[in-house]
Write a structure and sequence with these properties.
heterodimer; A: mainly beta; 0% helix; globular; B: globular
Amino acid sequence: EAGVAQSPRYKIIEKRQSVAFWCNPISGHATLYWYQQILGQGPKLLIQFQNNGVVDDSQLPKDRFSAERLKGVDSTLKIQPAKLEDSAVYLCASRPRDYRTDTQYFGPGTRLTVL
Amino acid sequence: AQSVTQLGSHVSVSEGALVLLRCNYSSSVPPYLFWYVQYPNQGLQLLLKYTTGATLVKGINGFEAEFKKSETSFHLTKPSAHMSDAAEYFCAVTGANAGGTSYGKLTFGQGTILTVHP
């Protein structure tokens, strides 16, 4: 079974530029998450999708971050414009349809550096 | 609201020694607890989890953890450290309703970097 795929793996941009990350979850997984992991900290949830609907985006900085999950499969996370403090690893995770199975499966992440 | 505190951002042990990584949690609902491991430039991999039932949970690579409700703890242990255990470890918590349905949102601790010396 293929794991969660993310691209790009690394991205370097200047502040005020825009950037987008892509995630392909494990086939059949209904729930998809985006986490932000700042160096030296644990991952922090940005947004949770159930199929193509948003379940929780309470910690998403909506003035600059946006995310979508078209057709309930792939997802993109966008930052526009980027700030220095957005430098972090952005992790995508997915979870099976059975809500009692709480395991989230993580992708390798995208490391963003904002200069 | 939920929170996780990992005591010690860095732990160093000798190869063959006991590994003990500490995790305390706070949760207003029955917790589901997890330990994840992260190797450099990789995503998080699940080591073990506690949802219901037996409080001593065994995971991969010889790790185990014990859920202690009275102490709100979920410490991770391994009897004998191996060089390949060097990584960063994260404790995480989520909650579930009375029917056992998870809320899904994971709250992570700040992580503990484990160093293993020869």
